[in-house]
Design brief:
Layout (H helix, E strand, L loop, with lengths): L1 H24 L2 H12 L2 H6 L2 E12 L7 E10 L2 E10 L2 E8 L4 E3 L9 H8 L2 H4 L22 E10 L2 E9 L7 E7 L5 E10 L7 H5 L4 E15 L2 E15 L2 E16 L13
Length: 281
């Protein structure tokens, strides 16, 4: 009986591990190809010229005492152009706006002379807009739909459990380089894009004296985009839940904020006003 238990345990372990072992053998190109097919057929994808996603957004301050803000979010894209806008009900945070017009990135001010922490992050790392990384499959600008022009370095990055599901990781190094570590995750079963992680660790700054230098600490920045609750719309499989998690920790403590969006409306190939992608005021 003892030998049977050992043998059955061994067989179980083999069957459990096979998907992970085989998964490791998938190349980045194979993962991307399967991912694209998870959105729609190649024929259908080729017909998508523009995409609009609209829904409700709520801003939660995890480590601060600020009251939550709520409002509407709009993501509009045409080719590699992208507009992300939020209209919020908070006096100190009434709006958010990120635009890539096909040539340059613009980040709107929250108030006169001031950007949000998320806006500052995008302003400092505008490559994630210009190369079609930010907002994932919620935009026609999604990098893998326009992979021919990205010239990025992409490699496999192992596997990871995300919300209880196995996911393949791809490490993404943008053309021109970046001090961000960017990793994208794709569900092992469906190959849908479910997460992008951006992270950076900055060394502690030097103080004016040895004692002051000893009190300095490194700064850790991490931004996560999560995509879930996928639904089919006109033969496209798109996420209806979109969450951005912002976390920075360092000398001044920790700041954590979440933007949680529920997308309720999609529109495909609707003609967009060219002014959509103008920076404006």
């Amino acid at each position: 009986m003892k030998h049977k238990i050992v043998l059955s345990t061994l067989l179980f372990s083999m069957f459990v591990m096979v998907p992970f072992a085989n998964g490791q053998k998938l190349t980045a190109e194979e993962i991307i190809a399967k991912h694209l097919d998870s959105i729609a057929s190649a024929e259908k994808r080729s017909t998508v010229k523009s995409l609009i996603a609209v829904g409700e957004v709520r801003v939660e301050y995890i480590t601060q005492k600020n009251q939550p803000a709520a409002g509407r979010i709009v993501l509009a894209s045409e080719g590699n152009k992208l507009f992300v806008g939020m209209s919020l009900n908070a006096a100190d945070y009434p709006q958010e706006k990120f635009i890539f017009d096909g040539n340059k990135t613009s980040v709107g001010l929250v108030r006169s002379g001031t950007r949000s922490v998320l806006g500052n992050f995008i302003q400092s790392n505008n490559v994630i807009l210009s190369q079609g990384i930010f907002s994932g499959t919620l935009g026609s600008s999604w990098v893998f739909l326009n992979a021919g022009g990205s010239k990025a370095k992409i490699s496999t990055s192992g596997t990871k459990k995300i919300n209880g599901h196995g996911a393949y990781g791809l490490s993404y190094s943008p053309k021109g380089g970046s001090d961000l570590n960017i990793t994208m995750y794709f569900d092992m079963e469906t190959f849908r894009h479910i997460r992008t992680e951006y992270s950076r660790t900055s060394s502690a700054s030097m103080g004016r004296t040895p004692d002051e230098s000893a009190r300095q600490s490194e700064t850790r920045l991490k931004i996560i985009e999560d995509f879930s609750d996928f639904k089919e719309f006109k033969e496209l499989m798109l996420p209806s839940k979109y969450k951005i998690s912002y976390s920075v920790s360092g000398q001044n403590g920790t700041t954590e904020i979440e933007w949680v969006s529920n997308i309720s409306e999609f529109s495909v190939n609707e003609k967009l006003d060219p002014r959509t992608f103008e920076a404006g005021d």
